[in-house]
């Protein structure tokens, strides 16, 4: 374990995060107000340098985990070539030094945990999905990418709840971008004009079944297609009573260029497109912009538009 004067997220963040349930907007605004650069605090700080360039540091994330109790910070310099399994964790920070990024060539899986914070990680797995969470609440994925994975960019299941903070991307994955099912919730938020991108996947950009998906703006879902064995080639594919909201607050939400269509709803699913100062654009998608069937419901409020190039 090393002490350091570098900057990281303060311990106050964890106590605030304990109150998260459905990630209401006013609560995570307060949380982000505390996400400032401060000297290293008294909580356990475990330094990982996977290049073996820091004397006294752990040389892998997995080597550091047995020493990480509740409230620990694991600060990573990559690249790290390993699968990481976070099970039964509480109030754990795993990420790069503040303002930097670290690459993890492997899957990060989180199960039966609460209050895990991932920061500044570029995740890519050659064998499975990049980030996977099961039965986990209060998961925050901040300034991370999960691109080029053999599965999905992000899997949420088993009643998991994840807040995704920009900049973020879930691109070029072999199965899909974000997959949410089993009563799980994915909420996306963009700050300072920084984007969230879910594009060029060989499967739906967002797939939700018996789950919820929300974005508050500056999210692009583009050029996703139906790959071999994928669930579909829609930008957004909602099934099994899934619910989605596209709120254009921090910037436009754009659903464009998706092979099979923009947004598909089946099996009593619901989606709402509403503006809070910006606009939702559904344009130039396959044969349809939005298609709803089997008792599903679509709501447009304010500045939302569907457009398609003539063929």
List the helices and strands and how they pair.
Layout: H1 12-17, H2 25-33, E1 45-49, H3 61-64, E2 73-77, E3 84-87, E4 90-96, E5 102-105, E6 108-111, E7 114-119, E8 121-124, E9 131-134, E10 139-142, E11 145-146, E12 152-157, E13 161-165, E14 168-169, E15 176-181, E16 185-189, E17 196-199, E18 206-209, E19 212-215, E20 219-222, E21 234-239, E22 243-248, E23 253-256, E24 261-265, E25 270-275, E26 280-283, E27 290-292, E28 297-301, E29 304-307
Parallel strand pairs: 1-2, 2-4, 3-6, 4-7, 5-8, 6-9, 7-10, 8-11, 9-12, 10-13, 12-15, 13-16, 14-17, 15-18, 16-19, 17-20, 18-21, 19-22, 20-23, 21-24, 22-25, 23-26, 24-27, 25-28, 26-29
Q: What count of structural domains? A: 1
The share of residues in extended strands comes to: 35-45%
Cα-atom radius of gyration: 19 Å
Main sheet characteristics = 11 strands, parallel
**Share of helix among residues?**
under 10%
Detail the poorly predicted runs.
3-42
What is the 3D form?
elongated
Strand sequence of the main sheet, in spatial order?
1-2-4-7-10-13-16-19-22-25-28
DSSP strand tally: 29
Residue-averaged pLDDT: 88
SS field, number of helical segments? 3
Structural class by secondary-structure content = mainly beta
Amino- and carboxy-terminal Cα gap: 62 Å
Structural account:
There is one protein chain. The chain has 311 residues and is mainly β. The protein has one domain. Helix content is 6%, strand content 42%. The protein contains three helices and 29 strands. The strands form four sheets. An eleven-stranded parallel β-sheet has the order 1-2-4-7-10-13-16-19-22-25-28. A nine-stranded parallel β-sheet has the order 3-6-9-12-15-18-21-24-27, with no helix packed on it. Helix 3 links the parallel strand 1 and strand 2. The protein is elongated, with a radius of gyration of 19 Å. The termini are far apart. The N terminus is likely disordered.
